Amino acid sequence: MGPLGTLDFLERLITLTPAEDDIDHIRTIVDNNPKVPSRIEYFINKRGENPGPAIADMARGLEAQLADFLVMPCNTAHLLCSEIESAVSIPLINMIEVTADRLKSDRIKAPGILASTAVHQTKLYKTALEERQITSVVPDESDQSCLMKIITSVKTGHTTYAMQNELLGIAARLKDSGADCLIIACTELSAISSDLKSDQPIIDATQCLAETTVQMALGRKSIE
Predict the structure, then answer these.
(1) What is the pLDDT of residues 134-165, one digit of tens each?
(2) What total of structural domains would you count in the chain?
(3) In the prediction, which pLDDT does 113 show?
(4) Active-site positions?
(5) Is 198 within the bounds of a domain?
(6) Is 224 a domain residue?
(7) Nearest-angstrom CA–CA distance, 209 and 1
(8) CA distance 201 to 221
(9) What's the mean pLDDT in 18-38?
(10) CA 43 to CA 65: how far, in whole Å?
(11) What protein family does this chain belong to (predicted)?
């Protein structure tokens, strides 16, 4: 949904594709639509228009253009998976599930989750992780408020080096609370996290989605 999050995902997709020339890259059909009603307004502030119908309409449009499967580089919007899946006959690769699978594969026990407030309030990651016997660690109220300010700032196109320091501080406090790794579970945070240095492992949901997309597009992983 967010233009920077979409761009970040596409850059990762291109980088991950084993290509020697243009023709080796994966064909993508992109609906970069920043006019989708705000997920933050709808899910957190409990006002505004439901973004579900707009996203479902985007999915139908991509299917009509002969997309084989769908990906959605927005963690919070995965609260609307059921609306999307009921609107089309092609599969949606679930960003939350592939990230949770990666954590299980890496034997992570207690990840610290950097995500929007809506993700925490609706237990989007918490539920997926608990199904895999993984405990989640979340920021306290003050740090979560700081995260939301960073996310909102990225959405407006304003990023600063100070944001990196703020993220590092939040990461350190998550570690103190028992986190054994960090999940970057917001595409706006993914877009500014390339220089984030931490003594903890960092698993980025956008990266997990991009890796799975490449594997599926190249036929190395089945589409379930």
Answers:
(1) 999 999 999 999 999 999 898 888 877 788 88
(2) 2
(3) 97
(4) 74, 186
(5) yes
(6) no
(7) 15
(8) 25
(9) 94
(10) 30
(11) Belongs to the aspartate/glutamate racemases family.
Q: Which two tokens stand for residue 212?
A: 């799975």
Beta strand spans in 33-137 (E): 70-71, 92-93, 111-114
In this structure, the answer to whether residues 174 and 212 fall within a common structural domain is no
Residues 114 and 171 in one domain: yes
What's the domain range around 162?
95-205
Nearest to 99 by CA among 63, 69, 67, 74: 74
CATH of the domain at 39: 3.40.50.1860
Q: What is the pLDDT of residue 58?
A: 97
Same domain for 51 and 138:
no
Residues 166 and 200 placed together within one structural domain of the fold:
yes
- What does the DSSP assignment read for 154-198? HHTT---HHHHHHHHHHHHHHHHTT-SEEEE--HHHHHT-TT---
Strands 202-204 and 181-184: parallel
CB-based contacts of 125, cutoff 8 Å, min separation 6: 75, 96, 99, 100, 113, 115, 119, 136, 183, 185
Residue 120, in any domain of the structure:
yes
The CA distance from 105 to 103, in Å, is: 5
Mean pLDDT within 38-60? 90
**Number of other residues whose CB lies within 10 A of the CB of residue 116:** 26
What is the enclosing helix (H) or strand (E) of 203?
strand 202-204
